[in-house]
Protein: Adaptor related protein complex 3 subunit sigma 2
Amino acid sequence: MIKAILIFNNHGKPRLIRFYQYFAEDMQQQIIRETFHLVSKRDDNVCNFLEGGSLIGGSDYKLIYRHYATLYFVFCVDSSESELGILDLIQVHYILQEVVMGGMVLETNMNEIVAQVELQNRMEKSEGGLSGAPARAVSAVKNMNLPEIPRNINIGDINIKVPSLSPF
Structure:
């Protein structure tokens, strides 16, 4: 069962809050702060499931979330809910964000909406792949078997003279 749906920005400011279990107002604010703290400190390329915080039910509850650009979509659920089913539901909420923003309809062309969602997914995948790029580049350069360091680099009409460098 879904206990709460929380959507907040990167600074923890709530954008949509729905509790399906009664909590006093001050307790709701504590849950929002704790949930934001738990999900915002996690790296974007780790699992989107974690045990609920101490305020929302502890190990009997799960937080299932996605981070899109400047928003966190978080569902607080009990153990009877399917993690993948909730992630699919979050995707629907994300698509809704592409259609309506600030009470105004942004786009009604379904092809354009789908294209934007696919673009967002591709960007997320490519960003994850780039995180290890610097280390891979250094490793590739160190493993190159060059008989000597090149002194001149010619690319088309461009000539680059390389100054003398010390070896790695």
Summary: The CA atoms of residues 6 and 134 lie 35 Å apart. DSSP finds four helices and nine strands in the chain.
